[in-house]
Please model this.
Amino acid sequence: MAVISPPSAVQPAPLVDGIGRRISYLRLSVTDRCDLRCRYCMAEDMTFLPRSQVLSIEEMGDLAERFVARGVRHIRLTGGEPLVRRGIDMLAERLGGLIGRGLDELTLTTNAMRLADHAPMLARAGMRRINVSLDTLDPQAFRHITRVGDLDLGLHGIAAARAAGLAVKINMVALAGLNEDQLLPMLDFCAANGCDLTLIETMPLGEVEADRSDHYVPLHQFIAPLRAERSIWPVDKATGGPARYFAIEDSPVTLGLITPLSDNFCSTCNRIRLTVEGRIYMCLGQDDHVDLRAALRDGGDVDGLIDAALAGKPRAHDFHIERKSTPAVARHMSATGG
Ligand code: SAM
Ligand code: SF4
Model:
């Protein structure tokens, strides 16, 4: 009797782009909506996507699983504000279930307005660390920058996350004239609360009414007051991400610097971005994308489209803050997922 051997398990091809960069990090934007309106990110009056155009929680889970099967080891949930998306708990639980089965890490970036309610759920889902965006510790300045935010809610959210066992890294966008006085207080806050701190240069993404270049400040200038007081030195913490890390004299805080404008970091980029519409953007700073939604809904060749996107991943972004009136790309950071 002939013995029929089972079909050999075909390993899905790993994600490698046209210039050999291995893609292992997926940023999944779970909504373009937000409960804040940060001035550098959004216009006051935003039009959000109609529900018919956004992926369901189940569709996002299916796509995320496909990316993990192809070698993605880290997924970050972002947005818009991920914690305003209904069903975020189900998605976190589903993706958390992939940890140890291909996925190493599930993380989140949030403005923390709803974090106090969600932190225990995130920890239960298997999350170990999150990023919280916090540009100032001054309540009035916080309200001004976010237009509608309440600083106390954010601080409670951070405390709840720490109490739930989550490591917290604060993301602070450097804004000339708005938070230059806040670096040293923020470092003290981070030291007191067991957080790390990453500073980000403002990037020209999407129309935001005011001229963003008015608030652009290169990070070497933003950190000058710190350097005047304490030494800082580089530490080896290769994450494949855009930040360079530094230790600070007499401080437990690791300082990250993200300098897309003053110092390009694209050559080691290991990431891919999936929007809530089901589009893959291969670069935050370019418009090229591939649409997976129709293929996903009609049973089309999703993997073939992912391969096409990879082949077209650009070498570098195209940010130039001096192009005053026109942002590098028209879509907002909240649409692509920061
Ligand atoms: N709503 C969440 C939050 O604020 O953390 C997640 C999405 S937000 C788009 C992700 C990160 O992008 C935040 O740290 C935010 O400060 C940053 N961001 C938004 N617009 C930016 C811009 N134009 N330039 C630099 N960073 C920006
Ligand atoms: Fe919302 Fe985050 Fe953009 Fe602020 S930075 S408006 S919190 S998406």
In short: Residues 34, 40-41, 78-79, 81, 109-111, 133, 171, 173, 200, 202-203, 205, 333-334, 338 surround S-adenosylmethionine (ligand 1) (CB under 6 Å). Residues 1-8 have pLDDT under 50 and may be disordered.
